[in-house]
Amino acid sequence: MTKISTLTPFTQPKIVSYTGPPKSGKSWHLIGLLTSAEKSGLSKSKEFLVVKHPNDDKDSKGKISSSGKTNSIDALILEHPEQIANRVTSRTKHVVVSGANFYEDESIVVLFKELLDSGRNIYFSGINLTYEGKPFNHIGKLMALADFHTLCKANCGVCDAPANRSVQIERAGQFHADPRCLTHWYADGRPDHKHYLKDQQGFLVIKVGSMYSSKTESTIEEVSALKKPKGGYKVFFDQRYGEKKGIKTNDLRVFEAKEVSKADEILADVVANRYHAVLIDEAPFFEGIVEVAEKLVLQGHQVYMTSLLRDFRREPFPKVPELLCLADRIDNMHYGICNNIEFSEKRKCFHPAVETQRFIEKDRVKQPASYNDPIILVGATDSYTTSCRDCHRVLDEPKKTFDLPELMTDVYYGD
Q1: For residues 202 and 200, what is the distance between their CA atoms, to the nearest angstrom?
Q2: Choosing a second label site near 193 at 20 to 30 A (CA), which of 163, 317, 348, 396?
Q3: How confident is the model at residue 194 (pLDDT cuts 50, 70, 90)?
Q4: Can 397 be counted among the known catalytic residues?
Q5: How far is the C-alpha of 52 from the C-alpha of 197, rounded, in Å?
Q6: Residue 47 pLDDT more than 60?
Q7: Residue of 131, 151, 142, 258 whose CA lies nearest to 206
Q8: Is residue 90 scored above 80 in pLDDT?
Q9: What is the pLDDT of residue 212?
Q10: 263: left (phi over 0), alpha (psi -120 to 50) or beta
Q11: Residue 149: its pLDDT value, please?
């Protein structure tokens, strides 16, 4: 399930991701998008660039096909990010990429960001995890750049339960990918039959969004409603709203929580107290959180996290790409409204806030932070504010890698 919540219309350029295991219907979403565009007349304007990686569904050459091969659309087969960039024209408004997980060159992340900066929308699909349960190439970083996430589930090849992972099996002398639920995905770290949660299915829920987007409030509301034993955790240096213990929301509500510095401390405390559910606020700040989150889920714990997607530079926040790939549910919280008029030409801006604007004070004058400043700086209203993409500013950004043509403003939207 994916929540897309906004107080105001999302009209700025965006990235939309469709990820999941093989046979989970990822391609169906792209096909539906493009079929709708074709019927509405949008595709006649050459606004869509549709590509796929050559390793994505090798049997469907030159096409993006659904898993049942019942529907398909034409696509260019492009193996390298620069080939995609070279196909972008001044009329290209939307870029659709199938099999984004197969791009091994990290410049695919740079390309997506620069396409977005140029005013273009990106829709992509990809497999989130390898057979070993690790992020598939750079798919996690692409997910962290995305504004909207749809996690597609397949049916487990053993029990038909919803599957978020896959294994490789041999059939008729050929190897195939087969979806697996967590119970039937075999990996090191699975609990033995004596574990106190042996009958509970573990999962990971991440609520993501900018500052003041109700991530923490929403998570506290959901976890508080659970009747099972539960524990909360916050990073020890987070004192944004005073010294009182607990996870504090922006409106100063408190959820009882322990302050720890390393994720291993969370794991030990959860087991010692025999918690069934776990709430971890601002998860990326914990050292070792990815490994601990995976262990907790494999043991049967139901884990809830809050997190920013990107840092103040609009780069993927550390550890977030890995957590997004492991997640069973991603809630996109877009309740925040842009409050960053100080650095833009607008007197008022009511667009959804998808970015975090950091500022510094120099000679009593506020200015945007530098791209080269430290990533982590804990603070509230004195250091950060919410920002839409158009109003966001950062100094000393790296030069662009790709020479993308300027987007024509008189785009054609059909007859």
Answers
A1: 6
A2: 163
A3: low
A4: no
A5: 42
A6: yes
A7: 151
A8: yes
A9: 82
A10: alpha
A11: 95
Q: How far, in Å, CA of 47 to CA of 358, rounded?
A: 34
For residues 193-231, one letter each, b for 16 or more C-beta atoms within 10 angstroms of the residue's C-beta and e for the rest, the string is eeeebeeeebbbbbbbbbbbbbbbbbbbeebeeeeeebb
Stated as kind and residue range, the H or E segment containing 116 is: helix 107-117
* pTM of the full structure: 0.91
**Identity at 166, one-letter amino acid code:** S
Give strand pairing partners of 386. 356
End-to-end Cα spacing for the chain: 35
The position carrying tokens 């509500």 is 253
Q: Which residue has the tokens 């992340």?
A: 109
Q: For 338-358, what is each residue's pLDDT tens digit? A: 888 776 666 678 788 899 999
Catalytic residue among 47, 217, 282, 294: 282
Identify which of 51, 56, 52, 47 has the alpha carbon closest to the alpha carbon of residue 22: 56
Which of the 8 DSSP states describes residue 408?
Answer: P
87 secondary structure, DSSP code:
H
Per-residue burial over 338-374, b if 16 or more Cβ lie within 10 Å, else e, is: bbbeebbeeeebebbbbbbbbbeeeeeeeebbeeebe
Q: Once rounded to an integer, what is the mean pLDDT over residues 375-390?
A: 75
* Residue type at position 220: I
